């Protein structure tokens, strides 16, 4: 897998979408591996940029290619887990898109309807939208730790208002600190997008 990861990362940095797609076609046969390849490649690219080894343009192009590939390949995976849950997804405080788009794509491909609250929403904006739409389960994606810590404020304010919306979190801060989701009062944490179905099923049973 490391060899595939290196090849895929190099293809992204070269802006070669055709070769990146070929790598997936020849080596990836289930969604978990597809998602892992995308996430690990972008994390590696992020570190290269932080170290000054690549340009910001390469980071941007890599993200665009991954989003386009994701749109194409998630259509191949039909999970068939549709329910009538009232769901919404939001990127809290941050402005990244890939994590949210991965989750949205696999949910959409299996028949779920998910309201998209967009990027960079504040806690109060998210609460207003949640109340307006009577959301049962809110999916919160974050990229940076300060945004992840805002989940605690979000959950507390909802509870103080008597609103029992469940919160599922995901993103880099929660992958780094495996107990952070509990510390901020979230109801569940999905390390990988494909785990979302099992979490939703458990919440429905409760």
Q: What name does CATH use for the topology of the largest domain? A: Rossmann fold
Strand order, sheet with most strands: 2-1-3-4-5
CATH homology group of the largest domain: Cobalamin-binding domain
- pLDDT averaged residue by residue: 86
Which structural class do the helices and strands define?
alpha/beta
The proportion of strand residues reads 5-15%
- The counted number of beta strands is 5
Largest sheet: 5 strands, parallel
| Shape estimate | globular
Number of domain units: 2
Output the helix-strand order. HHHHEHEHEHEHHEH
In the CATH hierarchy, the architecture of the largest domain is 3-Layer(aba) Sandwich
Would you identify the regions where 5 or more consecutive residues have pLDDT less than 50? Answer: none
Oligomer: single chain
| Count of runs of 4 or more consecutive helical residues | 10
For the CA atoms, what is the radius of gyration? 17 Å
Report helical residue fraction: 55-70%
